[in-house]
Automatic annotation (TrEMBL):
It comes from the Eukaryota. This is F-box/kelch-repeat protein. It comes from Cardamine amara subsp. amara. CDD domains: F-box_AtFBW1-like. InterPro entries: F-box-assoc_dom_typ1 (IPR006527), F-box-assoc_interact_dom (IPR017451), F-box-like_dom_sf (IPR036047), F-box_dom (IPR001810), SCF_F-box_component (IPR050796). Coiled coil: none annotated. Residues 1-50 form the F-box domain. Pfam families: F-box (PF00646), FBA_1 (PF07734).
């Protein structure tokens, strides 16, 4: 029997075993295979296989950009002898997209990831990109571009459609909203009741975006959320600190939110017990005495092993890299990993975490 006469289900199973990087060659082989590989059910099947083969349990994937490539980096925490820990860092592949993708990433003032889709803010251009489909969408904001514009990317939980929220104006007090399902701009309901000039880090979780912000009058930190399903802001939410320290956010397996608080002599990491656009509760995850001054680039949390990894960004060089990683655990466990020594390698800063997705960009 010729392969062209095989049942569609069997062809799907065979093609789903093709590696992600070789999929483009398959699509050029024949029209039928091209159509099959562009079917979303096939995409989901292949993504499951890629995830199972390229990632180990507990691995975190990040996007790392160098001068010539955009890499997927897998970071895993390993438990060694005597209840010690070490890092496993490997390249899981190269994200291959359109010819301008690398330039867009390098020159973008903001790179945002949500559910397999990237939003790059490149000058006055917005670029949406899904590396799986090698598809991009270039478009302009509806109103005039400003260098202080702030963007967020999320999705509707019911339709799965991605949406973009834009803050613009001198004080970032004006709002605009873009829906990919209708390719249209609109003004979201509700008003912005806080000052976006003093927002800190943000993170996408369950299709929503969360920010840390500072009250300009009191100096207190708080958390707030934009719900991309209801297209509304939630109320200000509490953070486990008042007005001292530096604050960083991270997602934990797309289920929880973690906040790292670095004070002058201690570092604390808290994880949410519950997180919704209008409600949050926290519990302490780890605390360590640490007077070391850090330029924190990113951090990740492993709840099962009860450890966290903090990447230190060396800004003393012209080329910013991660030279050190700090593993923090229970009972004051603290370990510095020099990424400049074998078998490690200095890492360019991670832009964001990443997961493959079959979401279509039209």
């Amino acid at each position: 029997m010729m392969i062209s006469n095989l049942p569609k289900e069997l062809v799907e199973e065979i093609l789903s075993r093709v590696s992600f990087k070789d999929l483009r060659a398959v699509r050029f082989t024949c029209k039928n295979w091209n159509a099959i590989t562009k079917d979303r059910s096939f995409a989901n099947k292949q993504i499951e296989k890629v995830a199972a083969s390229s990632s180990s349990p507990g691995e975190n994937q990040f996007v790392m950009i160098t001068k010539f490539n955009i890499y997927l980096i897998g970071v895993n925490l390993l438990r060694t002898q005597n209840n010690d820990f070490d890092l496993s860092i490997k390249r899981n592949g190269t994200l291959v997209g359109f010819n301008s993708s690398l330039e867009a990433f390098h020159k973008s003032s903001q790179v945002i990831h949500c559910n397999g889709v990237f939003l790059c803010v490149w000058g006055n251009m917005l670029v949406l990109w899904n590396p799986y489909w090698r598809k991009t969408k270039w478009f302009l904001p509806r109103h005039s571009y400003g260098g202080s514009d702030l963007y967020a990317l999320g999705y509707d939980k019911f339709s799965g459609s991605h949406k973009i929220l834009r803050f613009f104006g001198p004080n970032r007090d004006k709002l605009d909203f873009y829906d990919l399902s209708s390719n249209s701009w609109s003004v979201p309901d509700g008003t912005l009741e806080w000052d976006m000039k003093h927002t800190k880090s943000s993170v996408s979780l369950k299709g929503n975006t969360y920010w840390c912000a500072i009250d300009e009058e009191s100096g207190d930190y708080y958390l707030f959320c934009f719900d991309f399903t209801s297209e509304r802001f939630g109320p200000p939410l509490s953070l486990p600190l008042t007005h001292e320290g530096h604050v960083y956010l991270s997602a934990v397996k797309e289920e929880k939110l973690a906040v790292l608080i670095k004070m002058w002599n201690t570092m604390e990491i808290w994880v949410t017990n519950k997180i919704e656009p209008d409600e949050v509760s926290w519990s302490i995850f780890l605390k360590v005495d640490m007077e070391t001054r850090l330029q924190i680039g990113s951090f990740l949390v492993d709840e099962e092993k009860k450890v966290a990894v903090v990447f230190h960004q060396d800004r003393s060089r012209s080329k910013r890299i991660y030279n050190n990683a700090y593993i923090i655990g229970e009972n004051g466990y603290f370990k510095r990993v020099d990424l400049r020594k074998s078998p490690y390698t200095p890492l360019s800063p991670f832009k964001c975490s990443y997961v493959l997705s079959s979401v279509q960009i039209k």
